[in-house]
Design brief:
α2 packs across α3 and α5 crosses α6. This protein is an all-alpha fold and 143 residues long. 75% of the residues lie in helices and 0% in strands. It has one domain. It has six helices and no strands.
Length: 143
């Protein structure tokens, strides 16, 4: 399997994620955890809380449309696994997010930036299991 290395796109994406995290903390006093933001939209605790969460999710969803306006085409996304594997992966990630009390954006980007010991441990566990999963899927199962 060939993996394309895209340093400029990755750098720009990382800068935008970091900027979004800083702005959310600065303007709302909230940690940018995508799973928690989505959960707050699905089970809102207040209308003002729901509004910013819905706006942020709408921005995430409409990002590719903005890309297509700027570059004349939708971004090319190639996923080298089958749809059932993506669904299984999504379920596993959902379970991990539940037991880990957050996702990689919350712990890995915001928690580690705040030097949270819990987030540092959670991110280390995420990464360990990512490495193990890739090893098992590619080298043991040969998928």
């Amino acid at each position: 399997m060939v993996t394309e290395f895209t340093p400029w796109a990755s750098l720009i994406g990382g800068i935008l994620i970091g900027l979004a995290a800083v702005l959310l903390m600065l303007l709302r006093g909230r940690v940018f955890g995508a799973t928690g933001i989505l959960a707050g939209v699905l089970s809102p605790s207040g209308s003002s809380d729901w509004t910013w969460r819905a706006q942020l999710l709408a921005g995430m969803v409409t990002g590719p449309l903005l890309y297509s306006l700027l570059f004349g085409q939708m971004p090319v996304i190639q996923v080298p696994v089958s749809t059932p594997m993506m669904v299984i992966g999504g379920v596993i990630v959902g379970i991990g997010v539940t037991f880990g009390s957050g996702c990689t954006s919350g712990h890995g980007v915001c928690g580690m930036a705040r030097l949270s010991p819990r987030s540092i441990v959670a991110t280390a566990v995420f990464m360990l299991f990512t490495f193990l999963t890739v090893y098992v899927v590619r080298h043991v199962l040969g998928l």
